[in-house]
Structures are given as C-alpha cells and as structure tokens.
Write a structure and sequence with these properties.
The chain is an alpha/beta fold.
Length: about 240
C-alpha cells in the first residue's frame, strides 16, 4: 500500500452496537506512523469505534476501509484475515492462563498459519526481546505482574507484524508507574517501527505526557481536536 494511502479510512460512517447507533457521521483517517487517541467518557463510543475496525460492530452509510478490506460489504470469511492484519491489545490482557508465555505466543502463530518450528521460535524470541521479557518465556501468566502480562499482550499483537495496533485502555488496570512503562513501550514501537497505534483511553494525563492526534467522543459523535492546546480543556 502506498505510504500516502490511509491505513484506515472512514468517511461519514455510522457505527452500531447491536441495534443501537453509537457514533454518527464518523470521519477518521489513520496513516503509517500515526499515534492516535480515542477519548471520552465511559459509554461514549470509543471502544465501539475500535470494534468497528475489526468488524465486530456494524458500519452503515459512508465508506469504511481498513487496509485492503471494505467494511461496508465485508464477507464473513474475510473477517479473520482482516483481524489477522491488525494487532490488538486489551485492558484485561486476555492471555491463555493454562499455558506459558511462550505457548501463548506459539498458539497465535500456529493459528495464523505459521508452520516451521524454527521460524516460530525465532519470531517468539524477537517479540519478547522487543517488549523486554526475554527471560519470562517459560513463566505462566499468573506468575507475572500486571505490567508484565500487558507486555506479553503487546508482544502477541506484534507477532504478525501489523501496520496498525489497536489498544483498548491498555493502562486501565495498571498503577501509574507501570502504566508509564507500557506507554513508553507503545511510543517506542510507534517511533522505531513506524507502526500506527490507536489507543482508547479516558486518562487525559496520557494525552499530555504522550502527545498524539486526539479524537473526542461525545453525544453520539467523535471529532478530532484541532490542536494539542485543547487537550487540557476536555469536558468529561
């Protein structure tokens, strides 16, 4: 895909959660290397937008595209391939608790058609090094701190080398110091690998410490702020 072509492009799109309209007339573009926030009160539609990117929530009207996938008419059989093209990080980690860090990552690779054991092992080692957990591969999730579990989740999101990572409240279950480490890691991935990152958060202090483009969700709409100076004045 051409560098000037958006990785995600929504134009005048309505987003539904079930039968309920949650975001109306969304205009959103994401380019390679972008660091974008979706922020707003609880229930304002932030996560619904993220789920629309993965085709979990329906889109209506306008045009909606993620990579090579047209979401307006996406077929069910295409959805796994759409999701495979994205990295997703959840607030509650969503690790498989009955297997080690290594085996969590191996499960994802084998589920996405990686076959050769040596290549799988090399990729697992590579992503664990990227998130600073090389020595934790043999650990079970319950043996890790919350911050370490989130780092495993980030490593998992990197496995298939996505152009976009979607992070849904990635620091929501973490204390301040640990949250800082996670945001530092996401910013480093964004900076060093030019990976576009979309982060859902209601923590406005993150928007100041880790500047990026900011979309505010409120009253069934979501609009980009004109400048960083507006961030302090967000009305939640």
């Amino acid at each position: 895909m051409d560098a000037n072509t958006p990785l995600i492009e929504f134009s005048h799109v309505d987003i539904f959660n079930g039968e309920n309209l949650v975001i109306e007339d969304l205009n959103f573009t994401l380019y390679k290397g972008d660091f974008v926030y979706l922020t707003g009160r609880v229930g304002s539609g932030k996560t619904s937008i993220l789920r629309s990117f993965t085709a979990e929530n329906r889109v209506h009207n306008g045009t909606a595209r993620v990579g090579e996938f047209n979401l307006n008419g996406i077929k069910r059989k295409q959805i796994p391939y759409l999701r495979r093209s994205l990295g997703v990080v959840f607030q509650d980690f969503q690790l498989l608790m009955d297997r080690s860090v290594h085996d969590n990552l191996e499960f994802v690779l084998r589920s996405t058609d990686w076959k050769e054991k040596r290549i799988i092992e090399d990729r697992i080692a590579e992503v664990l090094e990227q998130v600073g957990l090389t020595s934790k591969a043999h650990k079970m999730p319950h043996q890790l701190s919350g911050g370490e579990q989130q780092r495993v989740a980030i490593a998992r999101s990197l496995l298939n080398k996505p152009a976009v990572i979607l992070a849904d409240e990635p620091t929501g279950n973490l204390d301040g110091e640990t949250a800082t480490g996670i945001m530092d890691l996401l910013k480093r991935i964004n900076r060093e690998r030019d990976t576009a990152i979309v982060t859902v958060t209601h923590n406005t202090s993150l928007l100041v410490k880790y500047p990026g483009r900011v979309f505010v969700c409120k009253d069934c709409s979501c609009h980009e702020l004109a400048g960083e100076g507006d961030i302090i004045d967000l009305d939640f």
